[in-house]
Each structure stands twice: as C-alpha cells, then as structure tokens.
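The data are set out underneath:

___
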Amino acid sequence: MKRISLARLSKAALAFLWLLSLNVMASDDLRQLGLSVFGVMPHSMPGSEKDSPEQIELGKNLYFETALSGNGSQSCNSCHDLDKSGSGTEPLSVSVGALGKLGTRNSLTTWNAGFQFVQFWDGRAKTLSEQAKSPILNPLEMAMSSEEEAVVRLKEKGYKPQFDKAFPHDENALSFNNITQALAAFQRTLVTQDRFDDWLMGDDNALSEQEVRGMKRFVTAGCHACHNGPLMGGQLFMKMGLVNPYPNKVDKGRASVTGSRADNFIFKVPTLRNVGKTSPYFHDGAVFSLEQAVRDTAWHQLGVKLNERDVEDMTAFLQSLDNKKKIEFSNHE
C-alpha cells in the first residue's frame, strides 16, 4: 500500500479545514481572502514614472494613426479598440489585417498590458515597446513594409515637431525606436478601475451577495492557482488543456517561439481584469460567452464540471471586474 507521509497528511488536512472555513466566513473575512489572493490594482505601471506628458500624448496620437499601416487603413486602435467599446480589443475570434488577411490568434487587450510579465500569448516580447514593433511590420496585421517607411510616413504627416518635444535629447527624434517608445508610454496609462477593488478597499455596497459568493467559489474551485495577484493572471505560462485536452491542436503556443516540444500548447495566462468586456475568449477566440468560458476553463484546466449556480456566481464575480475608467478621445474619430 502506498504510504502517505504525516507532513502530506497534515497539509491535506489543513487545506480541507481552510476550504471548509470558507463556507462560514464573515464579510470581513471574505474581504481579507480577496486581499490575500488578489489584492488591489496598483495606480501606475512600472516605468511610467519616466514617461513625460509629451511622450504620452504622442503615443496616444500614434495609437490612432492609420499612416502606420501599409495601406493607411488601420491603426493600433483598429484591433485594440479604446474609444468605442473601450475594451482594448475587438469582438472577433482573430483580427483581419490591413491587407484583408486573417491573423492566427485572438487580440489581447491593451488595458493593463504593461503589468504583465511578457507580451503576446506566446510571450515572444518582453516589453511594451518591443511588442509594439511586431504588429506594425507584420504582413498579417498592419503590414508596413519597413521601419524606414514608417518613419517616412510620419514625417509626411507632420509628426516631427511632436517627436522633437517628446524626445528633446535625441538628435534624430523621429525614429522607429521612438515610435514604439511613445506607444509604450501611452499604454502605461491604461490601468483599469473596477467595483471589485472598491469592495476590497472597504465599500460593502460595491458588490452583490452573488458576486462575493462567486469570488469565494472562484477560490475554492482552484481558479486562483493561475489567476491570482492584482491582475488575476498575466504572470505565468500554463498549458491550455492541463487536465482535459483543449480541442485546438493546431496552435502549439510557446513552442513556436522556443522550438521545444515541452512548450506545446503553453500560453500566457491572460488577466481577468475587464474580462466581461473582452469577448471572445482563449487564444483562438473560440468562445464568445463568458459563462461558457468559465465552464470550459474549469473543465480543461481543473477537471471540474461546475454546476449552473457556480457558473452564474463566478460569472457575476468576473463581471465585477468591468473597467470603470474612461479616457477622453475627443480628437479621434
């Protein structure tokens, strides 16, 4: 018979008692649970203290600039919408590029992107500025022919004075590197605010009983193992289909970057902040319903079949993460 060590038995007993205690937790105890597992969103992103107002404003303009696409038809905002839906993404499974070509993955939201440990689903970029280079030059996305062409386009549109102000110490201020630096500076302002944080900070009226119940079930189900910290994700890679295989076997995820079979179907765990507004879900955008995404994630990642009350409660909790922050985009159509 397989032996179980006293230490393992004790840990299992403690875990059981902890889960049992969640059923009788008072409001203040549940708030402490939320603070310990998640915590409140920071007010600013790492590196934002170095961004000047001129760089941020330039980056904001560039985010909406269609001259950065090969045929002048698309901007960053085309696939990461901030001024209409405000979601920082789009309601398509995969994006359609400037030349009409389909992308291969669902577009991630630009909200809170700078807090995450890597960029893209496969983590192939480490920073926001590094990430910004790829869509501009990718033939499936904005399809700009070269870095030099991007610079020429912006000079023709009269951007040079803005770059000179934003990067006053650079002899050649209007450069491709500074294009991406300015875009990163603007994106570092995209920090969400939501009712869950209001509740964590002491506002008892910010969440309904169902939403609080959903948070508790989120934890007891084990979802917080990957979706923890203030972002509720965005801080590690995980296999898609960890317990029960995910249907999509075409996209190998991080393996396409590393070349290692050990990284097959490994993807960045997405943040859940504002998740109610960022449908469709998963790397392939296969699911449009948040309720179905909750069911599928529990099954594929945890091997758990949730009952309908759990699905409703957890979905309600996730919708309490909807972003309340508004950004003024009056200068953009």
Q: What stands out?
A: Residues 1-9 have pLDDT under 50 and may be disordered. The CA atoms of residues 66 and 72 lie 5 Å apart. The first strand starts at residue 237 and ends at 239.
